[in-house]
């Protein structure tokens, strides 16, 4: 039996950032996610260097014995590429990137991992996190100082302890070998997804999505709905039995392009809609500006596809990062924008997913995969406001043209105007629930907490004035001889 991969890659700048520093690569034999860091000056360059130094591995010539060494050597070459870049451009000093990569060789997968980008495996209906974060809070969890639940909200959860960087440090990736089992579904992602979407929801989406393209689109949407403040990058891949897949190959392309980008935007060039050689490159890796310290590409090496084309390989145009986001441009104007990243809300052009989800879902009835997205939204619940009451909604707090994606299904009878301002402000669609009963419980807890907050503190009561009590008349002790003094202390014996 021979196996192959069906895959889809997606990347978006996210809700807050003004540039995309994530990169991803998906090909027949190689899957990579790289989350760059080091500010606008270097994060996008670092993740691009990682992809450029690993993508040559995407061949079927590796033997299982050599694949492990080949992948580790490529990661080391990427590190040297970072060193060369920061030497040629000192303003890039200190940049780094996570790397999570899977290299297929036959029915074996070789994995390299550094940083906090993650790999998950859905096998037989159970989702497992395969990688271990190289972060400070994970160290605290491993040493028993905090719990896994506490790690999710720890203020230093984003402090990464091991990444691919230009520092002269002897840091190596975690290397492992795994079986490529038909029926497995793999997810590689940056923390813009894993840091904002709960494991249960990740598992639900990966289980229910009919193909990798739909799964990747829904994961991106879930991260947006979860309020992700980081770049979001996902690669989803299915391990398929080639013999079984041959029967339906005409109905579903092997490169797993779930949506023809031209169906979303007919103005796209053909190359952008059909992809280039079945390879999908998204995020900062689509940049075309020269990388400092890198030799000029030789004539026999195909150039990196243009931003628009590469970002759209196998990806709806609306779900690719906006042109110019993460293309390596370090102009002064963008530096000023980066300084305000913490508070900035992006203009619509920097936030393409939510803006054009309308188009994807409106196209559901013409069979571009949007129906699965709509069906998923109708399995979600949240607590919000309807008719000035705390209400439970089915769906998500968004709309797609004439289609409303949420409907109130129950009213609690509690007027929002009766709640303290703090509790009323929480009813903005962010109180999500995993089921109708969970939504009821969350609504009940919020109302109970609000009522408890409103209860007036009782005034301290004054004790009644003391009424003088006359001592009882002295009575002679019973059965005590008359000559025994009852008011004298008894002296101790001895």
UniProtKB/TrEMBL annotation:
Biased region (Low complexity) positions are: 480-494
Superkingdom, according to UniProt?
Answer: Bacteria
Its keywords, alphabetically, are: Membrane, Transmembrane, Transmembrane helix
Which Pfam family, any one of them, does this sequence belong to? PP2C_2
GO: which molecular function terms? Answer: protein serine/threonine phosphatase activity
* Compositional bias ranges of the Acidic residues kind: 326-341
- Record field: compositional bias (Pro residues): 457-479
Signal peptide range: none
Give me the ranges of the annotated region Disordered.
Answer: 287-348, 447-494
> For this UniProt entry, which segments traverse the membrane?
353-374
Q: Which residues does the UniProt record annotate as the domain PPM-type phosphatase?
A: 6-239
Q: What is this protein called?
A: Serine/threonine-protein phosphatase
């Amino acid at each position: 039996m021979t196996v192959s991969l069906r895959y889809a890659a997606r990347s978006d700048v996210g809700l807050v950032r003004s540039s995309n520093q994530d990169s991803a690569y998906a090909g027949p034999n190689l899957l990579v996610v790289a989350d760059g860091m080091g500010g606008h000056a270097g994060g996008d360059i670092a993740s691009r260097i990682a992809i450029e130094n690993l993508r040559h591995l995407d061949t079927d010539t590796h033997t299982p014995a050599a694949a492990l060494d080949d992948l580790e050597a490529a990661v080391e070459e990427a590190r040297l590429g970072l060193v060369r870049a920061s030497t040629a451009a000192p303003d890039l000093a200190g940049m780094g990137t996570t790397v999570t990569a899977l290299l297929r060789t036959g029915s074996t997968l070789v994995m390299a991992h550094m940083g906090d980008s993650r790999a998950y495996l859905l096998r037989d209906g159970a989702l497992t996190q395969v990688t271990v974060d190289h972060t400070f809070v994970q160290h605290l969890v491993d040493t028993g100082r905090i719990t896994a639940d506490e790690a999710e909200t720890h203020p230093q959860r984003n402090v990464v302890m091991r990444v691919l960087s230009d520092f002269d440090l002897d840091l190596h990736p975690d290397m492992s070998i795994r079986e490529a089992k038909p029926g497995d579904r793999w997810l590689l992602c940056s923390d813009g997804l894993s840091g904002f979407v709960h494991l249960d929801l990740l598992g639900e989406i990966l289980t229910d999505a009919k193909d990798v393209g739909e799964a990747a689109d829904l994961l991106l949407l879930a991260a947006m709905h979860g309020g992700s403040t980081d770049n979001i990058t996902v690669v989803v891949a299915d391990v398929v039995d080639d013999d079984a897949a041959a029967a339906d190959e005409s109905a579903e392309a092997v490169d797993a392009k779930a949506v023809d980008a031209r169906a979303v935007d007919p103005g796209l060039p053909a190359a952008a809609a059909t992809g280039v050689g079945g390879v999908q490159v998204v995020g900062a890796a689509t940049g075309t500006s020269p990388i400092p310290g890198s030799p000029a590409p030789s004539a026999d090496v195909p150039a990196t596809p243009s931003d628009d084309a590469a970002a759209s390989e196998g990806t709806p145009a609306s779900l690719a990062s906006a042109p110019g986001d993460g293309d390596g441009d370090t102009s002064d104007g963008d530096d000023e924008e980066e300084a305000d990243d913490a508070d900035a809300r992006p203009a619509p052009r920097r936030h393409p997913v939510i803006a054009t989800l309308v188009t994807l879902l409106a196209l559901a009835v013409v069979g571009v995969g949007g129906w699965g997205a709509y069906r998923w939204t109708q399995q979600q619940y949240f607590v919000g406001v309807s008719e000035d009451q705390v209400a439970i909604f089915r769906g998500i707090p968004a709309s797609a043209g004439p289609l409303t994606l949420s409907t109130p299904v129950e009213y609690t009878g509690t007027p929002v105007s009766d709640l303290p301002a703090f509790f009323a402000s929480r009813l903005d669609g962010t109180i999500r629930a995993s089921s109708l009963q969970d939504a009821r419980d969350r609504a009940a807890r919020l109302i109970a907490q609000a009522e408890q907050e409103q209860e007036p503190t009782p005034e301290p009561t004054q004790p009644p004035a003391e009424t003088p009590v006359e001592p009882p008349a002295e009575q002679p002790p019973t059965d005590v001889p008359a000559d025994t003094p009852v008011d004298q202390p008894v002296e101790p014996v001895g």
